[in-house]
Write a structure and sequence with these properties.
- The chain is α/β, with parallel strands linked by helices.
- 40% of the residues lie in helices and 11% in strands.
- It has three domains: 51 residues; 159 residues, D-Maltodextrin-Binding Protein, domain 2; 236 residues, D-Maltodextrin-Binding Protein, domain 2 (3-Layer(aba) Sandwich).
- The strands form four sheets. Strands 2-1-3-11-4-14 form a six-stranded mixed sheet. It has a four-stranded mixed sheet with strand order 6-9-5-10. A three-stranded mixed sheet has the order 12-13-15, covered by helices on one side.
- Helix 1 runs antiparallel to helix 2, helix 4 crosses helix 18 and helix 21 crosses helix 23.
Length: 588
């Protein structure tokens, strides 16, 4: 018998002893009696089904643990090594240096971590100093190393190219690359190298967040159907204004209200302009298009000016913030005064309590001259900046393994939600029989997360939550458990967001070929771009407000607007976008 086999047998025997010891004290509903029976087998058999021992005080035996330990992938190294990792603070993690998952993962991998924890509010400044000085850790984790920084510092040799490790290691990340559309292109820099591993989290309602929330009770009172076209929407607003839908005998209704600074809460955030022009910087046959210099943008603003002149749009929508919008919404003495508002969430303009937003539903996109589109941020599920290995690292292959293993489904659930059976658990047969589907995938639920009542935003110290790598997307459904979300459409916002998005918006997203992916710039381009975007976007918003309110006549001043856009550098802006797109995604 060779030395490695002997070591594996000894480790397996130690694991058996730990499991048997923990079973006597385990009063949870886990399968402890069954597990203690199952492990009563010869050392040769145990060698085939278990991995290295993990302290029972950290993570007791569970199906997820069994899957991880029997994979043969751990420990990563036989003799313990140390890596330095820089990570920002997280409001929902008490102390990553003492965190229960941190201890567990160290035992599992045999890799100790020397943590450098940076306050999140000073992260950008500290990371920039670290990069410019060369005083770098082995790993930057969740530090938002931008793709421009990856390209610049990677090409200078400061970051480790991961291509070889990705291709050589037969782990789950290869499947992630195959399943998630365009992922390899997105994380590959112009020099052909990959310098960072991404965090991937599908959020349906985040990807399609340019919504219009409409008071369904007012629709019912007036006997109106949900509007499908621009004309029907205009007619609905007119009836909201003139036919007393809140039934208090007063003309206090505000048909349409927007506010600044919210999540797609502006009147020009997209929902109301999409019927005339697809209101996102997008692609047409590989060419970047700026919607706000198109004729369709002019036509959208003319329609909004019509709404303004008829008193259907709240006149202060371009200056008020959310607090002021909510004061207006709650000024009605037990009656609602707002008919509809653009927002990414139903609570936006009216309040956070379910009773504030219960009557507001997100209606489908309107059809207009440009068609019927919902803005789709198709790549918002991907953060391509999460895990970077630097040239300071003496153990780059081991560091890669330490990070990439977190894509494993069961390991991810331990990392994000804690112990199986405590922070999350498999559903019982009775619960499955209720037929509750996962809100993202629509498939039957398999697990309940936050089973201990501690939510994602609550501070705890038994798991990492969003720190580290993750692939939770329905593009790769085999790598996620279908989750049961407690609640209902009337009182739980996640339910409402998921169902409204899936039913009313997802059918109208544009082809993926229209969606502009991540762009990467040279240092010179990035510096010039920052100034151009600030000046041009500010002028776009200023003139949109003036055209809508009638402070500027759009028929007489549109040509002047386009000329001023060119004067402010819109052609150069477009050139930078196109150059960056061609450099990264163009034909090789």
């Amino acid at each position: 018998m060779n030395k490695n086999k002997l070591v594996a047998i000894i480790l397996s025997i130690v694991l058996v002893c730990m499991i048997l010891a923990s079973c006597g004290n385990n009063t949870s509903d886990q399968k402890t009696s069954q597990d203690s029976t199952d492990v009563d087998e010869s050392a040769e058999d145990v060698e085939e089904s278990t991995g290295p021992p993990v302290s029972s005080s950290l993570y007791e035996w569970s199906e997820a643990m069994e899957s991880i330990l029997s994979s043969g992938r751990f420990p990563i190294v036989d003799e313990k090594i140390e890596l330095t990792v820089t990570v920002p603070t997280a409001s929902n993690v008490e102390d990553i240096t003492t965190n229960e998952f941190t201890k567990f993962y160290e035992e599992l991998t045999n890799i100790a971590i020397k943590w450098n924890v940076i306050p999140s509010e000073s992260l950008t400044e500290k990371i920039n100093i670290s990069l410019s000085s060369g005083d770098m850790p082995d790993i930057y984790l969740n530090c938002n190393i931008s793709q421009t920084q990856q390209q610049v510092y990677g090409s200078q040799g400061a970051f480790v190219a991961l291509n070889g490790y990705i291709d050589a290691y037969d782990g789950v990340f290869k499947q992630v690359l195959e399943k998630v559309p365009n992922l390899r292109d997105i994380i590959t820099m112009s020099d052909g190298n990959i310098y960072a591993l991404p965090h991937i989290e599908k959020c349906n309602h985040c990807e399609v967040s340019n919504k219009m929330c409409v008071n369904r009770q007012w629709l019912d009172v007036l006997g109106l159907e949900i509007p499908k076209t621009v004309d029907e929407f205009t007619d609905m607003l007119r009836k909201f204004k003139t036919e007393d839908p809140n039934q208090n005998g007063e003309a206090d209704e505000i048909p349409l209200l927007g506010y600044e600074g919210g999540w797609n809460s502006s009147i020009i955030s997209g929902y109301l302009t999409n019927p005339f022009v697809y209101s996102a910087i997008h692609l047409e046959n590989g060419k970047v298009k700026l919607y706000y210099i198109e004729d369709g943008w002019r036509d959208a603003l003319k329609w909004l000016n019509q709404l303004y002149k008829e008193g259907l749009l709240y006149p202060q929508s371009f200056v008020i913030q959310q607090d002021q919008a909510r004061q207006i919404a709650q000024s009605g003495d037990d009656v609602e005064v707002i008919g509809c508002y653009p927002n990414g969430v139903p609570s936006g303009a009216v309040g956070d309590r379910p009773e504030d937003w219960k009557n507001y539903i997100a209606i489908p996109p309107l059809e207009g001259p440009a068609g019927k589109y919902a803005i789709w941020n198709a790549y918002s599920q991907i953060n391509p900046t999460t895990f970077v290995i630097t040239s300071q690292c003496k153990y780059p292959e081991e560091a890669f393994r330490w990070g990439v293993e977190l894509y494993d489904r069961d390991l991810y659930y331990l990392k994000a939600f804690g112990k199986e059976g405590v922070g999350w658990r498999k559903l019982t047969e009775e619960e499955k029989a209720k037929g509750i589907n996962d809100l993202r995938s629509g498939t039957p639920s398999e697990v309940l997360v936050f089973a201990d009542g501690i939510g994602w935003s609550d501070k705890q110290n038994y798991c990492w939550r969003g720190i580290g790598l993750r692939c939770d997307t329905t593009d790769f459904s085999e790598n996620r458990y279908a989750q049961m979300q407690p609640g209902d459409y009337e009182t739980d916002m996640e339910w409402r967001l998921a169902l409204d998005t899936n039913n009313n918006y997802a059918p109208y997203v544009p082809p993926l070929e229209m969606v502009l992916p991540f762009l990467v710039y040279t240092e010179e381009q990035a510096a010039e771009l920052a100034n151009l975007e600030t000046v041009i976007n500010s002028y776009r918003d200023e003139m949109a407000a003036r055209f809508i309110t009638g402070d500027a006549d759009i028929d007489n001043e549109w040509d002047k607007y386009i000329a001023e856009m060119k004067n402010k550098g819109v052609d150069k802006l477009l050139e930078i976008y196109q150059s960056a797109y061609d450099s990264k995604y163009g034909k090789k």
